[in-house]
């Protein structure tokens, strides 16, 4: 309905999404690391930033298809991040790439499929369900909100905005949880009261998507 | 942050280069992707042992590459698991046609990255097995966590499985030995002070001037309990008893014992801990057949220590005593 | 003060007991007066090497007792020279009829206490010689000071003279070798942080969060200069160059090099220093024939490092390579 | 002339002197160590206290001659102190004992000879002259003052009081000096501005002598 739904999602929008995600992580690197310091090992910000910067360097040039761009990100994250988030986000982008392989532009439903595949990849690799205080707690509600909004006929822009809000709320909701997956799980009860760092990076990813995929400046 | 480093980003690369320069007779260092390989690798017909993990635990793992121990080590960034490329390229460089055994400390990141690497290698037709080390009894509720962390026991798995591989054992056999060690080894650690990850630049956690953390992880992950500082003898008991109980060690059994420094602890203090450990085990009729006292698996400059006990039998002792020649562990050569 | 100790007064006794318990095959510990002796001492017909000094520098000296190195070590209180009784009783316990060589680090207290011990032993008819180690180039004006301090070079003197004694060299010959090493070895150290002597309970000196001390002594004695923290490569140059210059090392010469941690420095950082040291020496055409990287002569939990270089020739390299089996140094066995 | 010159110096006065010296060092242990922290290795107080406490335990019983008491102190200091001060004070007490060997009571001249021998022992062992910022800078003026006062007919009490003052002044005078002996010499110019710890322990010894040897409560 809004003007931003005008053009379909092409490679340049995907590129803008990846850039925005990298920018957000770079800007909030210290915050991500500080969250990880509280209940992990103080590297989530550095890890994600290192990987996304490498991804930017390795992005294929203009005209690349969405799937190729996402695959390049996947390979960069797998080869550069390490830690838990490397294989998790790496697998997510690999699955996202596969979900849209061969398409030059994506319909709203393709975008939803892309994020659904990403979530499935993370859950397969990491075996975490909801409520375990991980990035899944941000991504799963985001994917649900995206689906639901599109189903009720919202524009992609609106739907992504709702997904981003859902991610943020899901991340907020990790604060009172006790972690049962990943490094934070070693803290047991002491993990309560802290936001899960991966849920924040996942939120940044969804916010980057909302700000770029449905239009807006392509950089 | 006070460290002998140049640039935060270069810490692991430069230290790995230094290791290579200091021990050219033992190891060869490759840069991209980063791994440390035995100088004489590949040893044809020998099972290749590969380990790795975040850096900051030196001498683990790079210091244990060499004859009778690891064929390759893959150092990640400080406290960050290595990436699959490292294990894949290391495996290709060192495997001698008899298969590859990954020795993986049980951390979500390590497990997943080694898993990805194993998938990629299997696809290339290289036989890969993995043994998980999960010996940290500080993690009590392994059902509700990512499971016990791999800590000091890793040194024992690497040494003993390394001896079996060096002696020409098959992949099945080396895997069996590695599992036997990991099934019979337990550890627990504590910290007097935090460490500072270079990329972060400030201490991972804060401890009061009169506080200590019992059950600390090797990345500065908080432990079982934060409490007031106690005398070394009491601390030793707090670490040793859960380990002994968890192993179910009984009178008449023998162990290989390690009193490990976290990186910033004077050796003087580690020997004070060893003294009490020997007393505690002696009172229970448990014999320390072999021991290590020193910095074997560290957390940067953290002050503190850990105790590791391995239930030993003749097979494990024989493999323990077998010659080893690496930058950090050497005997019989 | 955060330390793994029980009572301040018991630190050295308990640590020495721990050393004895951990290495009964190598050393025997006596309590009153306190010394650490080779388990198989006295070795008949062998020159007995005895060293000692304040504690807090572990593994020096107790960790260097054993085959191919020291016959006995006399640990004083932390940073306090031992008393003559210790050296006298140690010498009586370990001398094998071929004379005794004292290896003394050049500190007023050590020198005088060993001197008193030598006088007492000579009076009992035991031949005693002393070799002074004074290798610290940080002390510039040795005319106006108590002379250069004995630091890292001590490890080299103990290893190499130890090998000569083990090979059956006469007292004259062992003394000649020890002097040759001490004449050709130089060191310089630096600190990032202070250490805390247990009996005092607070840091010996204060350094700002961005400061370091160049030319530090192993007791936390202030050094040449206090300055802003610099990158590891620059620090390495600041330590290595005065050592190279003082030795007058020339292109084509070879050295045994040690990058030593002060006790609280991660091995990771020591390898970063070694990397640069290798580059500096390489650029000057000086070959590192052998090296040690690790904690060999420490200052409790001080963070920092020192560099020691020994001008090596075939004789010294042969003795360096000779088997050694002590708690802290082992090869060829 | 004063009443305190009444009785000659017997073993019990020597015992009182030793006790007083030990008390003063115990009381000022932290001060001695703090001075040593500034220009040495922070152990002078602990060293001297450990040695003097051992000396007290080993003192021969009532009726012991001055020389025997001093010799017991010497042996205890040599076996227990370590560091530089152990052999120095040990040699000092050994020479002092020798200087009065065989005497049951000491005349003022014997007391002067005792301290002169002590100083000579320290200088022979440590090779330090005056002005090198060591205990010699307190002891040498004290010995001179003692001699001079007795020569001009002062009582032992007065002479020892002057000696103690001279020691204190000598110690004060070490503050601006640059050390050229002992551990402090490594500091070079940076040793200026700090009192030499050994000069303070030597002052305490002379003050203990002044308070006990010429009479007064035998502790
Ligand atoms: N099993 C898992 N499934 C999903 N997410 C996980 C899992 N384990 C950890 N995470 C996520 O990874 C984040 C930590 O990533 P990072 O700090 O980069 O890795 P590491 O824990 O290895 O240091 C956590 O905040 C959490 O969101
Ligand atoms: N060569 C010397 N001659 C006389 N006194 C000395 C000499 N060297 C050191 N001293 C004295 O010893 C004191 C230090 O004693 P102490 O701290 O117990 O020994 P150490 O220096 O071995 O730690 C110095 O303050 C100084 O007065
Ligand atoms: Mg992390
Ligand atoms: Mg990590
Ligand atoms: Mg001292
Ligand atoms: Mg001192």
TrEMBL record, chains A, D:
Q: Does the keyword Kinase apply?
A: yes
**SUPFAM superfamilies found in the cross-reference section:** DhaL-like
Q: Tell me what reaction this enzyme catalyses.
A: dihydroxyacetone + phosphoenolpyruvate = dihydroxyacetone phosphate + pyruvate
Give an example GO cellular component term for this record: cytosol
Keywords (alphabetical) are: Glycerol metabolism, Kinase, Transferase
Q: Where is the DhaL domain?
A: 12-211
EC class, as a word, reads transferase
Keyword Hydrolase listed: no
Q: In which pathway does it act?
A: Polyol metabolism; glycerol degradation
**One Gene Ontology term from the biological process aspect of the record:** glycerol catabolic process
Q: Which GO terms describe its molecular function?
A: glycerone kinase activity; phosphoenolpyruvate-glycerone phosphotransferase activity
Q: What is its EC number?
A: 2.7.1.121
Note the InterPro entries from the entry: DhaK_L_YcgS, DhaL_dom, DhaL_dom_sf, Dihydroxyacetone_Kinase
**Gene3D superfamilies according to UniProt:** 1.25.40.340
**Biological function:** ADP-binding subunit of the dihydroxyacetone kinase, which is responsible for the phosphoenolpyruvate (PEP)-dependent phosphorylation of dihydroxyacetone. DhaL-ADP is converted to DhaL-ATP via a phosphoryl group transfer from DhaM and transmits it to dihydroxyacetone binds to DhaK.
Give the quaternary structure: Homodimer. The dihydroxyacetone kinase complex is composed of a homodimer of DhaM, a homodimer of DhaK and the subunit DhaL.
Report the protein name in the record: phosphoenolpyruvate--glycerone phosphotransferase
From TrEMBL, chains B, C:
The DhaK domain covers which part of the protein? 7-331
Source organism superkingdom? Bacteria
For this protein, the Enzyme Commission number is: 2.7.1.121
Q: Name one GO molecular function term.
A: phosphoenolpyruvate-glycerone phosphotransferase activity
Q: Name one GO cellular component term.
A: cytosol
Q: Could you tell me which pathway this protein works in?
A: Polyol metabolism; glycerol degradation
Q: Which InterPro entries match?
A: DhaK_1, DhaK_dom, Dihydroxyacetone_Kinase
A GO BP annotation: glycerol catabolic process
Q: Does the keyword Kinase apply?
A: yes
Q: Which reaction does it catalyse?
A: dihydroxyacetone + phosphoenolpyruvate = dihydroxyacetone phosphate + pyruvate
What keywords are assigned to this protein? Glycerol metabolism, Kinase, Transferase
Keyword Zinc-finger in the entry? The reply is no
Q: How does it assemble?
A: Homodimer. The dihydroxyacetone kinase complex is composed of a homodimer of DhaM, a homodimer of DhaK and the subunit DhaL.
Report the protein name in the record.
phosphoenolpyruvate--glycerone phosphotransferase
């Amino acid at each position: 309905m809004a003007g931003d739904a005008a053009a379909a999602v092409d490679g340049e929008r995907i590129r803008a999404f990846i850039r925005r995600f990298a920018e957000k992580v770079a800007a909030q690197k210290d915050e991500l690391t500080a969250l990880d310091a509280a209940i992990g090992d103080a590297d989530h910000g550095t890890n994600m930033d290192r990987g996304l910067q490498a991804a930017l360097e390795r992005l294929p040039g203009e005209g690349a298809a969405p799937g190729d761009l996402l695959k390049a990100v996947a390979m960069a994250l797998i080869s550069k991040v390490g830690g838990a988030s490397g294989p998790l986000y790496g697998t997510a982008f690999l699955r996202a790439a596969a979900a849209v392989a061969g398409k030059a532009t994506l319909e709203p439903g393709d975008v939803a499929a892309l994020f659904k595949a990403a979530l499935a990849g993370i859950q397969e690799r990491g075996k975490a369900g909801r409520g375990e205080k991980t990035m899944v707690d941000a991504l799963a509600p985001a994917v649900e909100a995206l689906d639901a909004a599109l189903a009720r006929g919202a524009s992609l822009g609106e739907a992504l905005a709702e997904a981003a809000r859902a991610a943020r709320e899901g991340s907020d909701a990790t604060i009172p949880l006790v972690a049962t997956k990943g490094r934070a799980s070693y803290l047991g009860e002491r993990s309560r009261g802290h936001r899960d760092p991966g849920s924040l990076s996942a939120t940044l990813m969804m916010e980057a998507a909302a700000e770029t995929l449905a239009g807006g400046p392509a950089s | 942050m006070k460290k002998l480093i140049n640039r935060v980003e270069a810490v692991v690369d430069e230290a790995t280069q230094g290791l290579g320069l200091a021990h050219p007779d033992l190891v060869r260092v490759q840069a991209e992707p980063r791994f440390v390989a035995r100088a004489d690798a590949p040893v044809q017909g020998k099972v290749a042992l590969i380990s790795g993990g975040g850096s900051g635990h030196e001498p683990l793992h790079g210091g244990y590459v060499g004859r009778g121990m690891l064929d390759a080590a893959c150092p990640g960034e400080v406290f960050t698991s290595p990436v699959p490329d490292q294990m894949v390229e290391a495996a290709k460089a060192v495997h001698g046609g008899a298969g590859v055994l990954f020795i993986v400390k049980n951390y979500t990141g390590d497990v997943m990255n080694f898993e990805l690497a194993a998938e990629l290698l299997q696809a290339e037709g290289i036989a890969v097995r993995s043994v998980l080390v999960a010996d940290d009894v500080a993690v009590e509720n392994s059902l509700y966590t990512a499971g016990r962390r791999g800590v000091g026991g890793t040194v024992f798995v690497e040494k003993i499985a390394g001896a079996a591989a060096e002696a020409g054992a098959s992949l099945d056999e080396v895997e069996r030995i590695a599992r036997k060690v990991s099934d019979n080894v337990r550890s627990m650690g504590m910290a007097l002070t935090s460490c500072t990850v270079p990329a972060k630049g400030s201490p991972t956690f804060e401890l009061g001037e009169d506080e200590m953390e019992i059950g600390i992880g090797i990345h500065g992950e908080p432990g079982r309990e934060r409490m007031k500082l106690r005398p070394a003898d009491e601390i030793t008991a707090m670490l040793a008893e859960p380990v002994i109980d968890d192993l179910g060690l009984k009178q008449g059994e023998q162990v290989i014992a390690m009193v490990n420094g976290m990186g910033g602890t004077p050796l003087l203090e580690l020997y004070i801990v060893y003294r009490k450990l020997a007393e505690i085990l002696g009172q229970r009729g448990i014999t320390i057949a072999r021991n290590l006292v020193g910095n074997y698996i560290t957390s940067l400059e953290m002050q503190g220590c850990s105790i590791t006990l391995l239930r030993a039998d003749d097979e494990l002792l024989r493999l323990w005593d077998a010659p080893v020649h690496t930058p950090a562990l050497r005997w019989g050569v």
